[in-house]
From TrEMBL:
The keyword Flavoprotein applies. It comes from Amycolatopsis alba DSM 44262. InterPro entries: Acyl-CoA_Oxase/DH_mid-dom, Acyl-CoA_Oxase/DH_mid-dom_sf, AcylCo_DH-like_C, AcylCo_DH/oxidase_C, AcylCoA_DH/ox_N, AcylCoA_DH/ox_N_sf, AcylCoA_DH/oxidase_NM_dom_sf, Mycobact_Acyl-CoA_DH. Belongs to the acyl-CoA dehydrogenase family. The keyword Aminoacyl-tRNA synthetase does not apply. Residues 231-378 form the Acyl-CoA dehydrogenase/oxidase C-terminal domain. This is Acyl-CoA dehydrogenase. One of its GO terms (cellular component) is plasma membrane. Residues 127-209 form the Acyl-CoA oxidase/dehydrogenase middle domain. Its cofactor is FAD. Keywords: FAD, Flavoprotein, Oxidoreductase. Residues 10-121 form the Acyl-CoA dehydrogenase/oxidase N-terminal domain.
Length: 383
């Protein structure tokens, strides 16, 4: 069945059938039982999705997709997470880097990179964040200087994800200094296996490590520029809206919640109103987060992205993990703190790992504080 002949409902049904296949369930179970020191990178399930054109279903067929829309892309993310498949490298490769290339890349860049990303054969990451800059991308200090018809790139990025598994990265660098932080930022495609690029892992709260990427005088050709030179700030603000729907955050919280409910049922605590009533309230909040997220997807489908609505959806959805994890502690008590190293850990340590990872959900795709600022300033006119 081609993408044009497939409805959104049919696509979701086929995704569920795919994620229920033995080969996929076997890999998911193996990933679930990985020790806390292990980290997932390129997955076989990504390649299998790519063979079907499902890894980037909203991309044109010529670039490895099905020619479907934002709703089908959101359905993939949702079903992937509900099935227990990690989505981080998929989000980076398809949802962010691929989106930038699809909307702002040159024809040559699209031909060279999009099919390989959509097939799962190639992976990409993002190099935006720098030490001491926090959420202020306008303060970045990585530079790219014109040289010989290309650009000489120097700088260091930190708190990046999955760089050790990626072939290339979308990197933000300052290409001119006008005294205005938002001016003079350019986006580049950086090959991470090149001499002059050094990738090191950095410990994090969660099982997955951050990376630090040092770029020591890498010479890039002019065709490494994504979009127009010095226009990176505008591109980042416009295109990150397409990623910030809240779908992934609500789905992650829902998976944790379903695990907590299952644990409560097994222990008999679900029959106790002291436990069941707060869980019912949490269920309602998660349903609200889902509704907010899908409203943003519908806006994207109509070609009407809503910056304030996206901030609301992301903020609300990402905040739900904390009360869910508190509920897990109330159901399992101190056992919820047992890690995957302990054979007695509930759910193979998934809850403990989620407790450590939970704070990062408030940071990814824009911190909760930044989202609230956008809502207050642009939505309510309070600032």
């Amino acid at each position: 069945m081609s993408g044009e002949a497939m409805t959104g409902t049919e696509f979701r049904e086929r995704l569920r059938e795919f994620f229920a296949e033995k080969q996929v369930r076997r890999e998911v179970e193996q990933l679930r039982r990985l020790p806390p020191s292990a980290e997932t990178g390129r997955l076989e399930v990504y390649r299998l999705l790519g063979e079907r054109g499902w890894l980037a279903p909203h991309w044109p067929v010529e670039f490895g997709g099905l020619g479907l829309g934002p709703a089908e892309a959101a359905a993939l993310t949702e079903e992937m997470l509900l099935a227990g498949v990690p989505d981080d490298l998929h989000t980076l490769s398809i949802g962010i880097v691929g989106t930038f290339l699809l909307h702002s890349g040159s024809a040559a860049q699209k031909r060279a990179h999009l099919p390989a990303l959509a097939s799962g054969e190639r992976a990409a990451t993002v190099l935006f964040t720098e030490a001491e800059c926090g959420s202020d991308l306008a303060a970045l200090r990585t530079t790219a200087s014109p040289e010989g018809g290309g650009w000489r790139l120097r700088g260091a990025k930190i708190y990046n994800q999955k760089s050790q598994f990626a072939d290339m990265a979308l990197c933000a660098a300052r290409t001119r200094d006008s005294g205005v932080g938002m001016d003079g930022i350019t986006l580049f495609l950086v090959p991470l296996t090149s001499a002059g690029v050094h990738v090191e892992t950095v410990p994090s709260l969660g099982n997955d490590r951050f990376t630090q990427v040092v770029i020591d005088g890498l010479l890039l050709t002019e065709d490494a520029v994504v979009g127009a030179p010095h226009d990176g700030w505008t591109l980042m603000n416009d295109l990150l809206l397409l990623e910030r729907t809240g779908i992934d955050f609500h789905a992650k919280a829902r998976v944790l919640f379903d695990t907590v409910v299952r644990r409560a049922a097994q222990s008999g605590k679900l029959d106790d109103p002291a436990y069941s009533h707060p869980l019912a309230e949490l269920d309602a909040r998660l349903s609200a987060a889902e509704a907010l997220a899908w409203r943003q997807v519908r806006n994207l489908t109509r070609g009407e992205p809503d910056p304030v609505g996206s901030a609301m959806a992301k903020w609300y959805a990402s905040e739900q993990a904390r009360p869910v994890l508190r509920a897990a502690a109330e159901v399992d008590g101190l056992d919820a703190a047992l890690s995957g190293w302990d054979e007695d850990a509930p759910e193979d340590g998934v809850l403990e790992a989620a407790y450590r990872t939970g704070p990062s959900l408030r940071l990814a795709s824009g911190t909760s504080e930044v989202m609230l600022y956008l809502i207050a300033a642009s939505g309510l006119g309070l600032l």
